[in-house]
Design a protein that fits this description.
With 357 residues, this protein is an alpha/beta fold. 25% of the residues lie in helices and 31% in strands. It has two domains: 165 residues, FAD/NAD(P)-binding domain (3-Layer(bba) Sandwich), CATH 3.50.50; 158 residues, Polyamine Oxidase, Chain A, domain 2, CATH 3.90.660. The structure holds flavin-adenine dinucleotide.
Length: 357
Amino acid sequence: MWQEIDMEDVVVIGAGISGLTAAHKLQKSGYRVLVVDKSRGLGGRLATRRVGSTAIDHGCRYLKPFADSALSPIPSLLQSGVLQPWRPETFALEADGSLSATSTETLYTAPKGMSAIAKALASGLSIHRHWRATALTRLPHGWQIEGEALSADSFNQPSSIEARAVVVALPAAQAAALLDKAARQNGDIERLLEQLQTVEFEPAITVMAGFSLNQSASLSIQKTSDGWMVASDTHPVLRWAALDSSKRTDPQESVVVVHSSPAFAANNIDRSDLESVGQELLAATAESLAAWIGSPTCMQIHRWRYGFVRQPLGASVLSSPVLPNFVGCGDWCLGKNVEGAIASGDRAAKLIAAALK
Ligand SMILES: Cc1cc2nc3c(=O)[nH]c(=O)nc-3n(C[C@H](O)[C@H](O)[C@H](O)COP(=O)(O)OP(=O)(O)OC[C@H]3O[C@@H](n4cnc5c(N)ncnc54)[C@H](O)[C@@H]3O)c2cc1C
């Protein structure tokens, strides 16, 4: 007896904000959508680590008001209580270590952690977590997505899924690895791969450092106790640092998050003594900002191999008129941040819906 193949309308690979945006819109339009992600959590670089009862944003820091308000999830997320305004004192750090006060527009953060934004968008979607896509194959009627279960939670998932259309919502280098096999058999896919290879990302190393609440958590030039954030485009070691615990409603400890400069990350990302890398980053932060930052009670480190987009694709999505049921999307297309990722996911959904009609 022939076994009937259960075919999805669309498989979205990647449950970051771009993939979830595409999946949400396609499902709302009536398509049968399955999302797969290699991680256990949702949101990709909209990432929150939980240490005990403390939430720490070690990826995306905040949302800014969107240039294109029609795409902005901020009003509805404020209404549902997922987001709240965050108004830290802001400072610019120069290459020579000097610090000066700056002003910034209102920022928006999630008291429960930035991954709450992804969780809100994922509600009602079918998602295979801990399932890593390994290869795509073009079929006469769609695509085959091969993958592997990464934990006991996902062992009951199939090793191959078929779909009429596919959205690849991964950082460009990871999307390229997925297309590699298919590109060797198909010139149109090879041309997509060549476009993907023009995209460049910058790495980042992130330190999350905890301090007791009664330890001073302010900076000497700070005027209020509402929290602070420091940004730099030129410092050799630091890109950004902030009092992450000032985003929470009832913090139990003070938490500082520090993101390294791209140069520091490029030089240190493959070191095996990650703990020492974190200490070096924290020591540089303490030297520039405040001595107490050098003596945390606990510390965690995260490596972002594909952290920030340096060279985008220059188009809202990766697509080809001869492969209408394939779209690549993400912040690397046009935008470099959450707004860009949402705009790209939105465009991907429109193109796939048109192809499936
Ligand atoms: C440290 C840091 C701070 C940032 N701060 C801000 C900020 O303050 N404001 C802002 O707007 N933006 C910020 N950004 C950028 C923002 O986080 C990204 O632009 C946005 O989250 C990208 O979303 P995405 O969906 O394109 O990709 P991602 O979030 O990278 O999602 C890709 C998903 O694909 C999954 N995946 C990868 N490979 C596979 C595979 N083979 N199979 C299945 N799943 C796979 C990953 O697990 C991930 O969930 C920051 C980024 C970093 C790293």
